[in-house]
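Figure 3 (text version): structure tokens given as input.
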């Protein structure tokens, strides 16, 4: 039996799973020389949520990151995760954008493209696979593993055979939620290996505590490669530890021949790096066997916990986890992986928090039901479909067949802010966020979110309380900190509750302003945030269902609207939601603008 090949996810999926994709390039480059000496089959360094996080939070050019990693890792094949026709975004892109993105990714340094579709709809993978082959790179087709009444071993084998016919150089079983068991792994891998002439790899998250056993069984049954993560970023919702799996195969026919001591040195480096990002750690990234029931990937659980915390509703987590399988069944059992994990998860949160199922339906659920993401694996609940899209026609063809070429229009739309084709593609992935990033780069104002200094257990420093009482002007208030948002221009939003009422305040660091202006600045930020919008109390007050960002205001003061008209579009958990007016009448006041953060119970628009 040949040596088992190792793909290490430390520079992509490992930190995406455990610290919300926040690792910065500056913490990757110093260890690259040692990583390059290991002899990995590949290093996963790009794709998934890294592109989004670079632009949205870290204010790094993701293309420059790739170029720097290529220069620092000259001997090791670099790998990325590509969402087929979705590329790295959350919608389908036209074929010319897909081809251009793959071409530029290859030219900037990607050697192995792992390509998947959240629906396992092979039509959504044709163009990206062809583009990878055209670039002369390794195309790896990914089978999104899931369990349901409509998913079978034979179906997955047929999918593997289709990948082979499409020209893929290898396939991977992508077990994003950690659903595989050792027995199923052995059966599935053996069936694929016996049916295919191309290598089979396995990618399994350790959420349920089974991944290392599954990978060992996969190797024994003919798998060519496994995905691991350096131990400092392994386990739980990440992957089995690289060092442990190398030790497990040592001295066997599958011996990786990798230097265990060198891997341990790399592990110690990342052990210290992880401390730097302690503020992004979550209690939901450890072993959780509930995934075998609710099928929720670890990164998705972290997002859900953050949203519920902002809503002062973290106690509803179990309700949301129980709701997710119901929503998934009603939507035809899609595998829970980006973007379907966000589509299902966000709708489940809304169903729970509004105490009325499908009272508010995200745009992405509507697009899903219209067939814009592809064909659902199973039957869709007719009641949900009727409530969301009525009698609208459902797309039967490959969704991208309906999309005209986009690159020329994108280039014109971004104008001089784009210095090259890579910048145009950044804008293509995330239009608003991409434009903001390019504008800030042009203005020299790029600023990454603030990192809170790490204090070890020996520190004598006191931790600030997250729940306390204050007395002001003779009145006593109970304050509870529910969560924090991203810093912007030295200000950070804090989500609190005052005597149980949700509020958002913006706080500016005292170190960043003159001492004489400190009190006035901080107080003005708080007053501006908490008092500029009236509390929703009348039938004509339009509110949001959860903390979100306004991405469009569709009406103006004086407009006449009918009950049910869409007046706002908000974004939360990377999903868009249309906000309808509860009554008909005249728009009398608008208390919100595009780009502003909003919370429930605020009157965003007044209609009477």
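Below: residues designed for each position.
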């Amino acid at each position: 039996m040949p040596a088992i090949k190792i793909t290490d996810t430390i520079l992509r999926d490992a930190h995406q799973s455990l610290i919300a994709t926040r690792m910065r390039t500056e913490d990757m480059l110093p260890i690259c020389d040692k990583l390059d000496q290991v002899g990995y089959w590949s290093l996963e360094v790009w794709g998934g949520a890294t592109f989004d996080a670079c632009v949205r939070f870290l204010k790094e050019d993701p293309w420059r990151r790739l170029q720097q990693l290529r220069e620092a890792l000259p001997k090791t094949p670099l790998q990325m995760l590509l969402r087929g026709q979705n590329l790295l975004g959350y919608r389908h892109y036209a074929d010319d954008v897909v081809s251009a993105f793959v071409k530029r990714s290859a030219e900037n340094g990607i050697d192995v493209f792992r390509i998947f579709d959240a629906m396992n709809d092979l039509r959504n993978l044709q163009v990206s696979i062809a583009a990878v082959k055209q670039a002369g790179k390794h195309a790896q087709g990914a089978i999104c593993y899931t369990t349901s009444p409509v998913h079978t071993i034979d179906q997955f084998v047929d999918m593997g055979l289709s990948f082979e016919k499409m020209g893929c150089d290898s396939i991977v079983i992508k077990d994003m939620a950690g659903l595989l068991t050792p027995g199923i792994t052995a059966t599935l891998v053996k069936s694929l290996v016996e049916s295919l002439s191309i290598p089979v790899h396995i990618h399994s998250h350790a959420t349920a505590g089974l991944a290392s056993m599954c990978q060992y069984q996969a190797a024994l049954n003919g798998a060519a490669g496994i995905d691991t993560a350096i131990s400092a970023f392994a386990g739980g919702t990440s992957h089995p530890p690289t060092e442990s799996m190398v030790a497990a195969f040592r001295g066997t026919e599958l011996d990786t021949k990798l230097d265990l001591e060198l891997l341990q040195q790399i592990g110690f480096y990342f052990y210290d790096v992880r401390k730097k990002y302690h503020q992004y750690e979550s209690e939901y990234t450890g072993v959780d066997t509930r995934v075998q029931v609710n099928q929720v990937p670890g990164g998705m659980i972290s997002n859900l916990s953050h949203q519920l915390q902002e809503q002062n509703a973290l106690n509803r987590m179990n309700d949301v986890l129980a709701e997710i399988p119901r929503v998934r069944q009603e939507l035809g059992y899609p595998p829970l992986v980006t973007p379907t994990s966000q589509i299902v998860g966000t709708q489940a949160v809304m169903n729970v928090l509004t105490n009325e199922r499908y009272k508010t339906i995200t745009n992405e659920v509507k697009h899903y039901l219209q067939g814009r993401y592809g064909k659902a694996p199973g039957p869709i609940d007719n009641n949900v479909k009727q409530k969301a899209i009525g009698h609208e026609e459902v797309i039967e063809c490959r969704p991208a067949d309906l999309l005209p070429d986009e690159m020329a229009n994108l280039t014109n739309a971004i104008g001089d802010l784009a210095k090259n084709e890579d910048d145009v593609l950044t804008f293509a992935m995330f239009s608003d966020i991409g434009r903001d990033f390019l504008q800030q780069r042009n203005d020299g104002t790029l600023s990454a979110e603030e990192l809170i200094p790490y204090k070890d257990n020996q520190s004598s420093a006191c931790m600030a309380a997250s729940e306390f009482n204050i007395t002001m002007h003779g009145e006593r208030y109970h304050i509870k900190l529910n969560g924090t948002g991203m810093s912007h221009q030295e200000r950070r939003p804090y989500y609190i509750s005052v005597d149980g009422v949700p509020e958002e305040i913006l706080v500016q660091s005292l170190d960043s302003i003159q001492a004489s202006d400190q009190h006035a600045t901080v107080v003005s930020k708080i007053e501006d945030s908490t008092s500029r919008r009236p509390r929703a109390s009348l039938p004509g007050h339009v509110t949001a269902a959860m903390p979100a960002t306004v991405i469009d205001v569709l009406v103006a003061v004086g407009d006449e609207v009918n009950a049910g008209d869409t007046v706002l579009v908000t974004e939360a958990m990377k999903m868009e939601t249309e906000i309808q007016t509860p009554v008909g009448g005249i728009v009398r006041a608008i208390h919100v603008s595009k780009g502003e953060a909003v919370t429930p119970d605020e009157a965003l628009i007044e209609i009477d």
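The chain has a mean pLDDT of 88.
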